[in-house]
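Two records follow; treat each independently.
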Amino acid sequence: MGDDSSPTVTNNWSDHVAAADDSRTQRSVDERLQDIGPLSGGWLPLTKQAAEVVDKTTSAAELVTHLDVSQYCRADPIPHWHDSKPFEPMLRAILLKELEDASDGWLHRTLDSDPQLADALGFNPDDTPSRSTISRAQTNRFADLQSTIETATRQIQALAAERGSPIGTPYEDSASEEPIGSSKRTVNRLIRGKTRDLLDELQTVVLPAFEFDRPDDPVYDDEELLMLEACLGVTGTAANGGAETYGDFVNPDPDLDDPFYEDGPSGETLLEAIKDLSPTQIAEMVNRGAARVLTRAKPRLEFETPVMLSIDITYVAFYGEREELVRVQGAPKDKSYDWCYKFATANVVGDNVHFAAAMLPVGHADYHDPESYPGEDKSYRVGDVVRRLVDHVSDVCRVHTRRLYADREFYATDVFSVLEQRDLFYVIPAPRDDRVKRFIARMDEDVEGQKQVTVKSEHAVYGPVKHCVPNTRAETTLVGLPPDEDRDEVQVFATNLDVNDEIGLDRRLTKKQINRYRRRGGIETAYSKIKEFAPWTTSTNFSVRLFHFGFAVLLYDLWLLVDFLVQTLIDVIEFRTKPRVTAPRFRAFLRREVSALL
């Protein structure tokens, strides 16, 4: 994607940033694009540099070698005399990884196998960074720059998508993966066609699931407010600035005598309508919309029967004074921020799709059943989150689940109990408490002293369980996996699968079963992708935050569906770690289709 047929910003720009005639220049378009960038705060210096370089032929590797990142050296926490990899090459490498939506392992292998690229970035080709060095650098060394890296990545990917550049398109290890006859021209045409189809489904399937609590005979109907929300999502703009963009769509040639409502609803009108909704109402509407999309998608998508379900927590950063905002929770230690909102999502995982089926706000007891738990602690319980999401997928989405994957926040007695009650198999990472550390220390080793796959059955865990005593016992099985090319440390999981480590064959089968957990990563499932479809906001109102996130979940599902339909039409159905249609490219196509519709 990024071929000669891709639309460029100079001759095929049908959204609001274009001028009314065809005489607009690249410069004028780019200036307008800055106003609707992913964070609506103008282009960062890195993006401005990229704007001078990126065209339809520019790759991510070529771009990062041209970036001057010296201005960020003062943020390096490592003293210059320290024996570590140089700062500027490391920052360029991290930017390359983020622009390609790639893994730490991919970056390590790429630099190791391409000495010319390593040299161009500033490394000694004979001393490129290891995967663990890359991982630690992003977590620790570049922690203070993480927001800058993420913002610049999103802005550059959006810019590249508009200019037809291959930046952000899937990295292919082998050209043989591209099917014969499926030219990039063909794929781009399919994307446009399927995006139009999905926009129709947004109107006929998703929007009817929402209903605002508004007075009779309002100036704007619910669909107009929801189309404004969709516009904010695909442009990544804040409510007020996005409303002006929406006004450009609906009334491109305004007359001074036009009544105000001809320009569409204002951002304040949308926000006030959202604030009148309770979090419970919003969650119910979003989940109703997700169920409708999933019902429409099931005939087109290929899931295992019964399906695998992944339940994850998404953290949305909160900056500012927390004060009495009870719905703002403490962020995990590995995040670059201290406070966040938490949302749980249930996702159907298949060989070719990772589909969000339901979401739920978590972190506050209002949305759960704290009185059914023993003890004085009445905060939310992860077991109740699992109950509600699993029951919704089963009863409302009518999807039969057999196996569940969840992140380590769900390692709890209550979760193990509810999954056993519902006869579900599970795989959940175990946090490294003292007991797990002792298990790691006692893992089996081969003759060379290397850790081997180790299984510990009947591992007891204790904690509160719904309608039970405070220190209820549950049993699970611990499985330890030794380090590999993608992990430097032993990985420990809790499971109720039938696994053992008696002989080499058993250990290999056990590792294979547990490694399926990694499929929950699926097709660009990092929830930064969902947040890419959310409007920019600084609001501390929880209903506003929840509504923006929930609607972004639905746009995310539509993106996955477009990607799958494109793969279907070019006769390639496969499990891909990267989508054929990247999120920035889908948003660019959808933005043009929204403008054409309005």
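The next record belongs to a different protein.
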Amino acid sequence: MKLEALTVTLRPRTSWEAAELGMALVRRHAGAIWKPWLLVTVPILVLLNAVGWALDLLWLSGLLMWWLKPWFDRIVLFVISRAVFGETPGTRQTVRAQFRWGARWWLPYLTWRRLGPARSLYLPVDLLEGGSGSEARQRRAALGAPVYGMCALLTLVCVHFEILLVIGTLLGAMMFIPFDYLPDTFKALLESFTEQPQWFNAMLNLLAWIAVSVIEPFYVGAGFGLYLNRRTDIEGWDIEIVFRRLRARLAAAAAPTFLALCLTFGWLADAQAQEPSAPDASAVQAPSSTQAPPAQASGDDEQGDEEEYEPTSAPIRGLVDGKKAKRLPSTLNEIYGEQRSDDRAMRDAVAKAMNDPTVAPKRKQMVWKPKHEAKKKKKDEPKPVDPSKFEGLGGGLAAVAKVLMWAVVAVIVGLLLFTLGRWLGWFRGGASEEEQAPPGVRTAVHSEPEPLPDNLPTAIRRLWQAGRHRDALALMYRAAVESMAKRADIVLVPGATEAQCLRASRKLGSAEDRDVFARAVRTWQYAAYAESLPEPQDFDDLVGQLSQRFGWAV
């Protein structure tokens, strides 16, 4: 595993940050994920629905597509597990890998592990690490135990998002239905839920597949992000990457330095050896003549030991008879001799490495805290105030408030006196004057609509040729409505709308009658509301069909 080839920055993250990292990987490699996803899932969706339609078991087709989600999850995992190391696979490579990659884990994840709440985390553990038996169980326990609750919550959230997408798509489609048709649409939708026709089940399967195709890649990506974060926490990937990069940098700089040292030593002039000079005779004889007897020399050494000894290395302390003794010289030189070296350079290198921002990154994080937990600054206690200073101010405010209150009372009394004639009669048992009778109601004869002409087609065409197109369409629409109501044996309410007339026309026995009446209503609506008149030939053809279907005189 080439950790230095990672395309993401590894650092200790919270569980939600790790999930967001995985979702960011899915967004970055969206094309490499959704292309093979569509190529693999669409044929399976079509095949299962075709078989379900033939066997009248479309609900089973949708259930099988939902149950195969772990098998489809391998597509996303195959792409991001390689793209995170800078090796994004192609569409053809990803599709080919789905027929053999992780084959020994198909049965567990399609049977007893299908409903596991931590499937998004356990899937990369099993498919990427390749463990088996007890080893795989230990790895799942080590990586999944601390974040099991987070994985379960992630699964619950993604399931809710899929359900909301299905419901939102259905409700969003209803936004394009005219308001007059909404009651009938809701009624038909409820009937579809109860009767479960084939087309309705096929539509639900399609909407469920769309919701899964949108949400499932992000679900798998979030689980892969949690997997990376757990490996980083346990195995210290971030620290290992820093040391690998440091080693590579030092190795790159070591070769030129060594070559420069070799060239430098090669250019130095050879040093000539100097002949040793003969020792002086007086210097040779001096020690023998001045040497003291052994006993005397030993005595002198013992006498001047404490005066002449000076430690030349770091002293240490010892204990003599339970008491602190004087500092003793270090014995490291006696143990290691010439092999001892100064470790100051090593300490400086370690301190420099620890100060590297990539080893110990620092970041500033702001969090919200409740107000009652915030630390309050201590304030000095206020000095006691002399109440006598406010006696005059309090008296003045009380006098002003008293005057305002009496003013309000005076205003209320004045209003009562001013309106005395209106409310005094209520207390005497009735009004002072009898209420005047309302003026007589004016009545007028409601003008009945003009009767339809005997020869409707001729009258309609005459208005159209005279340039009164709107009047011609109005007469045609009125005659069509009355003819429809008479043939369907219904009574329309006054001022019935076009939608109500169309719903009433469903009682017509002939489909041709319903179609020609609907065409007449649409033509009138286009002219009345959109100011779009039909072509003369289309209008004449429509009048001819209405005359034929409803028996208008020609």
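Discussion point: The first strand starts at residue 319 and ends at 320. How would you locate this feature using only the token line?
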